[in-house]
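Researcher: Batch entry, complex prediction.
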Amino acid sequence: MIDWLKNINKDYPEFWKQYLSKFEKKSNRFVVLSTETTGLDANSDVILSIGAIAIENNTILIGDVFEVVLLQYIYNHDHGISNEFIIESKQPKSLEPQAIQGFVEYLGNSVLIGHRIDFDVEVINKALEKLKCGRLKNEALDIEVMYRKWKELSDGKEFSLDELSELFKIETSDRVSASEDAYTIALLFLKLKSRLGIN
Amino acid sequence: MKNSIAERIADFLIAHPPFSDLSHDEITDIASDIRVLNLEKNKTLFQINDLLHESFYVVASGVINLSVISDAEETLLNKCVPGDILGLRPFFAKNNYMMTAKAREESIVYAIPIATFRPFVAKNAEVLDFLLLSFANTSSNPAERSQGKLLNDSVRHIDNQSEIQYFQSLDYNKNPLTSTPNAIIQNVAQIMTDNLSGCVIIQENNLPIGIVTDMDLRSKIATGRFYITALVSNIMSSPVVTVPENLSLAEAQLFMLRHNVTHLCVTVDGSDKTQIKGVISQHDIIAAQANNPGILIKEIKRAQNPDELKRLREKLAEFIRTSMDKKIPLSHINNIAGEVNMAIIKRAIDLAILEFGSPPARFAWLSIGSQGRKEQLLQTDQDSILVFEDVAPDKYREVKEYFLKLAKKVTTTLENAGYPYCPYGHMASNSVWCKSLTDWKNQYSSWMNTPGERTDEICSIFFDYEIAFGEILLEEALTEMIFKNAEKNKKFFAFLGTDTLKKPAPLSFFKQFNLEEEGEHKDKFDVKTRAIMPFVDAARVLTISHNIKGINNTFLRFKQLAITEPKYAEVYLNAADAFLTLSKFRTQEGIKNGTTGQYLNLEELSKSDKEKLKNAFLPMKDLEEIIKNKFQLTYFT
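Model: Structure tokens for the complex:
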């Protein structure tokens, strides 16, 4: 509550205030998030695309997705990268501020799910910072952590998304995109969730 | 907005019927309403008696088993592999699931909302046909399902049931409310309310031009779009969907589905240019579904007393009547009626055992005669025998007493339920027909080896038996013994054969019907003795002589004979048809007059029916020849 009062005084963009107000209630919606970035440094790299899909009542809602390709003209120009692949992509495209705002509105107070979700959250936080917003407040669950917990393995052991898919015999599509990854993560999450007995 | 996951799922679906009949865009639209479920191993998707889900399912990965519970055992009907569709029941029915779907291994399924898919079914003939095909499809054999990967969710408690459901007739309102197009809405609504009716057919010159249902009143009046003083023609749905009389349950469902309506108007020829004959509502369809023999059998299994059995037996009579009206093949009705009768006998024995305690020895209750042949359609009397295993001589009396007491109870229960006692006392409650296996073996052996010596008794009905209850090994022991004795037993076949030929002829020398000359049934035609029994007897003696075991039904016996003895195939097939024709005459007569149908009043038959009847006698002559030659009866008679 105090947090919330503190926030309201700050001069946040309208969409962020809306976002914060959603946390008065607890959510039973999960949003599976996957991002494609230019690299693994949250400080210098940027998001190229976001794919997200929602889960409610243990079912993946195919109609409830968020997909966007970010038009990183400035970054690409600075790094001498061609915009060709962005132009070819059939997915909806937006500039970073609109994409991030759209995602935050889609996400609401849902619980975030991802594979190495900390990094996804971190890059989104960086983008939010540029928009003079606070950090994401959503609870987040990581399927890699869940897998280790189920197998009672030590923290050091790492499993890539492909390895996890292999272990659970999930067929992955040849198309590589953030949305495809999000869908695969969603299936893995359902499987792990039932194994760990989480409701 | 483009949705790449929906497209990915669409790519999967398009490879499988019925989706392959839709365009990619249509499937992508459908896919965006899909929910994806993960089922861990042994997780139930839906089970028998669950409320219907709002979706049907497509297996994306893994295997889902479909099973039914019958006789307290789980029977696997089918397994669904990726691409297979299951849980279609909500398309066709409103009552609960009749099978259980359970993940055999961890599986992923797509849940497709019925509401999303229904419009595509309605406007796409191929998709509809696919559903229809599966609906009429009775095969539960995985090997036979190659062309259609979709499963009927109605359950076969007994053979042919889904076929019957397909043919099953509907009872519907034959005096629907009607109104003219210039009636006032308020008045029409009042009439509907007074008559507790959900719809009114709007007619002009008794031709249907529209329909007003509760829904129209809700959506067009209650919303304020029209005043209640307006003319009814403003709010009627027009044109009304018309269908012909004699529509089956399945057809009615498909019409409703195709036109997305809740009521169908029945007219003389099914077009809106002929007279109104009635209206079929969704409620009629639900009622018809509740009336199917599978549910009847379920209820019988739970019946607590003879009165309940009686009520259920009356339901069976009703079922037979509507099935006959509907022209369902008689062989199907025979089978189903046989199963239901069998279930009633079983339950009667159950109840008796509950009362007297467990039997002191293993036993088998065999239905004999027409029930053993599953040809008992109407009020036919009870014929049964009881066989118990051999016991120590000092126990024999005690054991026999128990079974006699049990049998008396059962036959009384059955009598109360509406099965009259056998006038000749061919019942397990008769001390002569309730005995140990050895005694029975001796009995059959004396019938077969010294036929006609010690008794004039027509023993032939004892050779049509079917186990109703108890230890199947006892039945098998009897069968084995009978066939062993039958081998090269000329005398026995001669006797049975002669008995067959001894039946009074149906027609006189001048091809006139031989009518009863005196008594209660004077001037009527005894179709049972003069026409049906000769076929039954002929089929019996021929099957035994060919060593054909386990087929007791006359129709099926002739069919089997046609296969076993191809040179007479034509005669046998004609005989099978003739037998059905004659049974139909008898059943119709029985239904009409509430009798056993043994005596036909020929004056009530049309000329063409009389011809049909006469034609049915024709194969008798050929059968007689076959029997005479085969058993060399000229030496004996």
